[in-house]
Fold this sequence. Notes:
The longest helix is centred in the N-terminal third of the chain and has 29 residues, at 3-31. By secondary structure, the chain is mostly beta strands. The protein contains 2 helices and 19 strands. The protein starts with a helix and ends with a strand.
Amino acid sequence: MNYRLFLFASLISMTFFATSCNDDENSNASDDTTTLELNFEGLEDLGPDYTYEGWIIVDGNAISTGVFTVDEAGNRSKSTFDLATEDVEDASTFVLTIEPSPDPDPAPSSVHILGGDFNGATATLSIGHETALGDDFSASSGDYILATPTDTDDSNEASGIWFLNNSTGSPATGLSLPTLPAGWAYEGWVVIDGIPVTTGTFTDVAIADNASPYSGPNAGPPFPGEDFLTNAPAGLSFPTDLSGGTAVISIEPVPDNSPNPFTLKPLVGPIPETAPVHSVLSVNQNLIFPTGSVNR
C-alpha cells in the first residue's frame, strides 16, 4: 500500500476510535448521574448573606446537592440538581439547611429547616422531621400580660408585654414551647402600627430573654418580655399603647439573617383593642410552616 494512503487510513481509524470512546464516556457519564427535583412552599428570601443548601444522607454521611436562593416572590434560583446515581439511589434522607454566603465550611450548618426520609422515589419534607426542628409545634401555647414593671409610672401599663401568667397571683411561665435544636432560638415580638419590634431572643421560656433595649431602669420579671418606654425605633414613639397590635413568637436561625421576624411563627395573635392591663391574654397557634418534597 502507498505509504501516504496507509497513514491517512490509520488517522481515520484512530479518529473513529477516539470518537467512539468519547461517545461511550459521555453516555456512561449521563448514566452515572441522576437528577433530583426539589419543590418547596413557604421559604423566604434570606438576603445576600445566606443561602439554602440541600443534602442527601448516604450511610450517615451528608452529601451536598447544591445551593439555591429564594427571591421576594418565593421563586427559587434553581430546582434541579444532578448527582451521582449511586449516591442518589443509596440516600435515606434529605435535609435542607441555611448556610452563610460565602460559606467557608463544606459541612452542613446547624440550621436545619426541613428534612424527610425517602419513601421510594420521593421524600416529603417538614420542619417536624428529626433532622430539622424535630417538632410540629401543635402543642404550643402562649399567655401574656400587658404591664410595665421596669418603671414606676402606672399610667403607661399598656406599653409593655410579658409572656407570663399571673392568674394565681404570682408570675408563672406563660409560654409552652418545645426545646429547640442547635441553630435556632425563639424571639418575641409586638407589631406596633405595622412595625415589628423585638422583645428579645430566648431558648428557655422560664427565664428572662437576652435583651431589654426599650425597658426602664428597674429589673423586669424573669420571663421573656419587654417594656417599650425608651429608645423607640424610627417611625414609633414610646411609651405607646400595644392595644390593637399583634403579639408574635417566632423561631429564628442562629445567626439571624434579618432584623424582622423569620418565616417560622408558631404563635401569632391580635392584642385586643381594649386589652385590660395586668390580666392574662392568650396568643394563638399559627402552624403555617414551609414544606417541600424531593423526587429522585
